[in-house]
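User: I'm putting together notes for a lab meeting next week and I want to include a structural view of one of the chains we've been expressing. I don't have a solved structure, so I'd like a prediction I can at least talk through. The sequence is below, exactly as it appears in our construct file.
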Amino acid sequence: QVQLVESGGGLVQAGGSLRLSCVVSGSIFSMNAMGWYRQAPGKERELVAIIISGTRTNYADSVKGRFTISRDNAKNGVHLQMNSLRLEDTAVYYCAASRFGSGPPYDLWGQGTQVTVSS
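Assistant: Thanks for the context. Below is the predicted structure for the 119-residue chain, given as structure tokens.
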């Protein structure tokens, strides 16, 4: 069974850093697009960052300059380096992947990992 496995969430103080990771389990095929979304309580799920064909990236305005998305080809996965975290970055973060496409609809979604930023 092909699935996305996320790791790296947790509790961090404002201004701190976290690194999220997501790997494709159960498949040797590389994904053309991999991205991170987040959903805060009472809010819609939103795009955080996406990387397409290993090079093209797109970020939400709210995270530009603070977050960096990168592919891990050796592990068939993606990382999200989050620096200068703010209270408003608190959310459940989801990894998404598309085998051939450049974005939604995605073929796979992860189970989500909680990121909590405290003051």
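A couple of points you could mention at the meeting. The CA atoms of residues 14 and 86 lie 5 Å apart. The chain has no helices and eleven strands.

User: Perfect, that's what I needed.
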